[in-house]
Design brief:
503 residues, alpha+beta, 3 domains, 3-stranded antiparallel β-sheet, globular
């Protein structure tokens, strides 16, 4: 049984309501103009004591500093957020000062089990504001005021300008968390995350992950031993397993100046030893094989330490958004999508323009995700961005454009489904490969062949079929993108004429 506030079954989030992110929920809230000055170190002991057991990933962000940074000012993040509600910091609105998100991830699937967010705003937020924005009412949980959102999350005020968001909306789990978090609090059950998040107080954004016990030594031996760097340098597989099964976690620190200067540190319990000179290349191989890499990292410099390896370089705004989307609450492709708005609904040019720009931003980011021969990981990004499109508010949006957005999310999930089908189809073809060997004793073996006397085999044909499936899938994806581009272009022209605004 998993620890922590969420329900252990990974399918518990697979409802239409959970396509909203913690940050997206906050972005929709109205903020009353009651400014309160003064900031201390974030997060402090009061915030850390609210982080529940079972947490294996945290995000800590100085949001105000990011928006006010030279790159944030130069790229107009605050203005772009007001125009599209999705900009350089994803769903993080400029009305937030600091954020701490703690969660439990399944690192095998990169799916979220549960998330708890603490948001300190630079305006006073009341639960009445929250209830109004969420179309809900103020209720009571664990003898405290709380709001149950229809988007499968609970809200509660847990301090001065400090709002807690808890998802999924498991009332029993939320009540137990709320009682402990607002009383004595939880012990520091994960010292690694606590230390990693506080390692560089100058960083404006830190993501830290606990990876202890993630690596299974059995499969790791074959996987690590067959990495290109391991094969090319004849590295001992046992040494690789010994090091990587001792992995403690990683921390990514981002500091915003004229650029997003980033440092990724991966920590091990065992000494790196002689593998140190190969470790940056090994990590590159692992990220490429798992589909977890970022395009930006190809230009980063890697350096091995005694028990760590560090990569440093610049992160693009698109790369930053790819990281932030991992803290969304994704919907699954099997979910029934939300209904499109009714035809003839009253539309606003400003709301329609904001929605159109949001779609454009999200599609641009999705295009920036590099395919790295891992169909499942690539499919995950299409699912996540489909969920982001579902999050966009459609109030007063042109009904035809909102309907397009609805169908666009469906199309992205269809692409994700086709991607997941590629390895299934190629496996089926591979299972049908055979070789019949005659002479010299003969025999036959599935998926292998040799020359002993004569041989009859369909392996070359099977490989051609596999290549054809992969090629057809790429062609189908390219055609889908071409249709999306054509529709976007059509809407740009039609809406510009209809609303006399520049789309």
């Amino acid at each position: 049984m998993r620890n922590g506030p969420g329900r252990g079954n990974r399918n518990t989030m697979n409802t239409d309501l959970t396509r909203r992110s913690i940050l997206g929920l906050l972005a929709a809230l109205p903020f009353a103009p009651h400014a309160i000055a003064g900031q201390g170190d974030w997060p402090g002991d009061n915030e850390w004591k609210m982080v529940p057991p079972g947490t294996n990933v945290v995000l800590v962000g100085d949001v105000r500093a990011l928006y006010q940074s030279p790159i944030g000012q130069r790229l107009g993040w605050a203005r772009r957020f007001s125009e599209s509600q999705h900009a350089g910091l994803g769903s993080l609105p400029p009305t937030v000062d600091h954020v701490l998100i703690a969660g439990q991830f399944d690192y095998g699937t990169l799916q979220t089990q549960w998330l708890m967010g603490l948001i300190r705003s630079n305006w006073l937020i009341t639960l009445g504001d929250v209830a109004k924005a969420e179309g809900s009412t103020i209720g009571s949980v664990a003898d405290r005021s709380a709001v149950l959102s229809r988007r499968d999350a609970y809200f509660a005020s847990v301090g001065d300008r400090l709002l807690a968001v808890f998802a999924p909306a498991d009332r029993q789990a939320f009540a137990r968390w709320l009682r402990t978090a607002t009383a004595a609090g939880f012990p520091k059950s994960n010292e690694y995350l606590h230390a990693a998040a506080a390692a560089d107080r100058k960083a404006h954004l830190v993501i830290a992950a606990d990876l202890v016990d993630v690596v299974d030594p059995g499969p790791a031996r074959d996987f690590l031993g067959n990495l290109p760097t391991a094969r090319n340098n004849r590295l001992n597989a046992a040494d690789l397993v010994r090091l990587f099964t001792s992995i403690r976690g990683f921390r990514l620190e981002v500091t915003a100046t004229d650029n997003l200067n980033s440092k990724l540190t991966i920590d091990f319990a065992n000494p790196v030893g002689n593998l140190g000179r190969h470790l940056p290349e090994l990590i590159d191989d692992i990220m490429a094989a798992s589909g977890a890499g970022l395009d930006d990292m190809k230009d980063w410099t890697g350096t091995a330490g005694d028990r760590s390896v560090t990569f440093e370089g610049k992160l693009s705004p698109g790369g930053l958004n790819h990281l932030l989307i991992m803290f969304e609450l994704p919907g699954g492709p099997s979910q029934p999508p939300r209904e499109p708005p009714a035809e003839g609904a009253r539309a606003s040019g400003v709301a329609t323009l904001r929605y159109f720009r949001s779609l454009n931003d999200l599609l641009t980011e999705l295009r920036g995700v590099r395919f790295m021969d891992n169909y499942e990981r690539y499919a995950m990004w299409f699912d996540r961005y489909a969920g982001k499109i579902d999050q966009l508010p459609t109030d007063q949006v042109d009904s035809e454009l909102a309907s397009f957005g609805y169908h666009l999310a469906v199309k992205l999930r269809a692409i994700a489904g086709s991607l997941r089908g590629v390895p299934l189809r190629t496996n089926e073809i591979g299972e049908g490969a055979y070789a019949f060997i005659s002479g010299g004793g003969g025999g036959w073996g599935r998926n292998r062949w040799g020359m002993v006397g004569g041989v009859q085999t369909n392996v070359p044909e099977a490989r051609q079929q596999i290549a054809q499936v992969v090629r057809e899938n790429k062609e189908a994806r390219d055609q889908a993108w071409q249709k999306i581009d054509a529709e976007i272009s059509r809407f740009r022209q039609e809406l510009t004429r209809k609303y006399n605004l520049v789309f």
